[in-house]
Automatic annotation (TrEMBL):
Sequence similarity: Belongs to the protein kinase superfamily.
Region (Disordered): 275-296, 352-402
PANTHER family xrefs: SERINE/THREONINE-PROTEIN KINASE (PTHR24347)
Protein name as it appears in the record: Pkinase-domain-containing protein
Keywords: ATP-binding, Kinase, Nucleotide-binding, Serine/threonine-protein kinase, Transferase
Amino acid sequence: MPAAQTVPCQYRTGKTLGSGTYAVVKEAVHIKTGKYYACKVINKKLMEGREHMVRNEIAVLKKVSSGHRNIVTLHDYFETAHNLYLVFDLCTGGELFDRICAKGNYYEADAAELVRTIIKAVLYIHGCGIVHRDLKPENLLFRSPAEDADIMIADFGLSRVMDDEKFKQLTEICGTPGYMAPEIFRKSGHGKPVDIWAMGVITYFLLCGYTPFDRDTQQEEMEAIIAGDYKFEPKEYWANVSEVARDFVRTLLTVDPTKRPTAQQALEHPWLASSEPHFVADPTSPTGGPKDLLPNIKESFNARKTFRKAVLSMMAMNRLSHHALSPRSQFALNVDEYRKAAEDENVDEEHNLVYGHPSDGSHSRTPSSVGTPTSPLPPTSPAKDHLEPPTGALERTKLSDD
């Protein structure tokens, strides 16, 4: 590995945009170009023993960055004495569902267009030999507030490069429970089909405002997922959704991953491939136009919002208790302290940074040069089977554990 060298910082960090369990996201401006970015800041003490997770996220993002307009780009990464910085696109348009709820109306064709765009990006990710493993609405962001802004897939912290020469299937349990495929819970081996399952859950969510496997407990939710136990209910919500859309959801939520469609096959389904949109006509429309889905979606979403926050807050605490480093209790006590320390550090041109540099000794760095140097994180052993905390989602401009 090339020796680490110190160079002047090329960024100036500013306000905090959000935070998660293990990291904070700060606004950053490139000093020479004046361009703004989102900087994920991870305290090195929180990553001790987890260096493989950061290495993996960088490796994945190197393969997909700048390759597709609907995938967040990793532009740069560097270290200070205490923190690791990952420099991403600054997405200011908000999360997918927040954007939908802010609209005046929302039709089935709008949902189909969103799903089509996202699955095309998933097709690209899979073509790069990568499985995302944490697709969900919270990780789908808009590049800007503009009406025609690109929707972006973010959070590659749980992604893996599927190298066929090394292994065929992944076996660790990871992801966000409501969007995880049956084979993940079974630990029977999983791969790219888990992303298609997640897209089925997302599509269901985009059509009604809640997920198909909502249950009172995580155990009941897991059992429902394994059994593929869901319904298109309440009927008054789904009466406004076409049978073609429901068939699309059923197809993606095929329990057997070997029978689940690929991303390309999903794009060929009539709901996405037809030139004419599918919809249920609004009986009050003089032209027979489509039914507006937004009122029911908002009602359903708001009814579950408080419950969802409580559940995810509990999940975050469970993740911490399951994955804290030894001694566990001490690590748990230090998380807030270390995260706060990461937030308090501001860098600018007066700070020296640590990079690992190419063999020619060059250490010039500009945005999007991420493919050249390698981070001088200490080498680690490969990840073992365990539920990994989702530290990679933090390129988001609106971050929380809820």
